[in-house]
Amino acid sequence: MGLTHCFVLVIFLQWSYVKGDCGVVSKSEWDGLNPVHVQYLPRPVDLVIIQHTVTPTCNTDQRCAERVRSIQNYHMETRNFWDIGYNFIVGGNGKVYEGAGWLHVGAHTRGYNNRALGIAFIGNFNNDQVKRSMIDAVKALLNCGVRNGHLTSDYHVVAHRQLANLDSPGRKLYNEIRSWPNWLEDVSSIRN
């Protein structure tokens, strides 16, 4: 194998490692828009903020892709965000959708965007029951994030409501994530 081939292989492997899809539905697969600007997130990240979208749920691949596109349109056209605000979005079909992703700063929690991943569950979990498939998908994403170097092994999971005066991620999802092994009850050590 020539030097050029070796160089190309090394670049591809590095890109694959950093991209680390983790089974995520890519922006191209859900027909998302490219961001108008990006800022890179320092990695590995040690904070994951769980939230909900307070939108209708979705249960099929088609409906979830439509819902994610709708959220991105709202964020970019109405809120003037550079991209969809969440790093990842999970649908009722049990799939995780790429938002800002592992590498880019999102716009999900004022004061924490530059150091945390925001993961949003599609629905209103004050009303909706959280599906086991959604929980399992996010847990698999987080495990993959640790394996691929995107998350520290001792990362913390917190609820959006702990850092902002909101109900997010809703009572039912909040109750669920409080049982996760990386849950951080007392956020005083990470508060801005």
UniProtKB/TrEMBL annotation:
Residues 1-20 form the signal peptide. Keywords: Disulfide bond, Immunity, Innate immunity, Signal. Residues 33-170 form the N-acetylmuramoyl-L-alanine amidase domain. The keyword Transcription regulation does not apply. Residues 22-164 form the Peptidoglycan recognition protein family domain. Transmembrane segments: none annotated. It holds the Pfam family Amidase_2. InterPro entries: Amidase/PGRP_sf, Amidase_domain, Peptidoglycan_recognition, PGRP, PGRP_domain_met/bac. SUPFAM superfamilies: N-acetylmuramoyl-L-alanine amidase-like. PANTHER family: PEPTIDOGLYCAN RECOGNITION PROTEIN, PEPTIDOGLYCAN-RECOGNITION PROTEIN SA. Belongs to the N-acetylmuramoyl-L-alanine amidase 2 family. This is Peptidoglycan-recognition protein. It comes from Galleria mellonella. The lineage of its organism: Eukaryota, Metazoa, Ecdysozoa, Arthropoda, Hexapoda.
